[in-house]
From TrEMBL:
CDD domains: REC_OmpR_PhoB, trans_reg_C. It holds the Pfam family Response_reg. SUPFAM superfamilies: CheY-like (SSF52172). Residues 130-230 bind DNA. GO terms for molecular function: phosphorelay response regulator activity; transcription cis-regulatory region binding. It is found in: Cytoplasm. Residues 130-230 form the OmpR/PhoB-type domain. This is Phosphate regulon transcriptional regulatory protein PhoB. The modification 4-aspartylphosphate is found at residue 54. Residues 5-121 form the Response regulatory domain. Keywords: Activator, Cytoplasm, DNA-binding, Phosphate transport, Phosphoprotein, Transcription, Transcription regulation, Transport, Two-component regulatory system. One of its GO terms (cellular component) is cytosol.
Amino acid sequence: MSDRTVLVVDDEFAIRDMLRMALEIVDYRCLEADNIQDAHAIVVDQRPDIVLLDWMLPGGSGIELLRRLKRDEATREMPVIMLTAKTAEDNVIQGLDVGADDYITKPFAPRELIARIKALLRRAGGAEANERMQVSELVLDSKSRRVFLADEPLDMGPTEFNLLQFFMAHPERAYTRNQLLDQVWGANVYVEERTVDVHIRRLRKALSAGAKDYSGLIQTVRGTGYRFSARGAPTG
């Protein structure tokens, strides 16, 4: 049995049962909750590696729990995939903006979800060959998975960290959204292109939160996608 633990939060027993069987087939330990109160207690007590979180739940929405997890320093970097029947773009963007790392709409194929889980867990635990990369006063430490600006830590989610890590390892080259999805999310993971735009926006916000605004490092390349350029670092 793998030491990876997945918390499934859904009020439909049939979905929890299906996911439990799919997870156990790939040797993941499965925890279950059908409301946000029990789910939060499990997160605090057992610290799962990843959370599969339904949007609509009794006693409060999944978004409410997501906000709570992302506000808490102890659970802020815990990967979360939203499970939702809501397909409207505004709802999807809301979930990503709050801090979800990915989403999948019902009904979904268990194999696709498992692929996304594996990709997220790889990203959360992976590191580039260069353990420490630096541009001006911005420093990324792959070993501790922390980013510093003028020696002060920046608050950044795991997906934004992985994006920045990839960009800093491959500067001055323009990447399409599909290329970024393949390189950062994984070639076999089914994520829509607009997900990249949401995480780029969050990365820029994180880079602008320090003593100096480093959001200009992430440049939009019209008609292509995005590029990381040291020329966007502030001067003076």
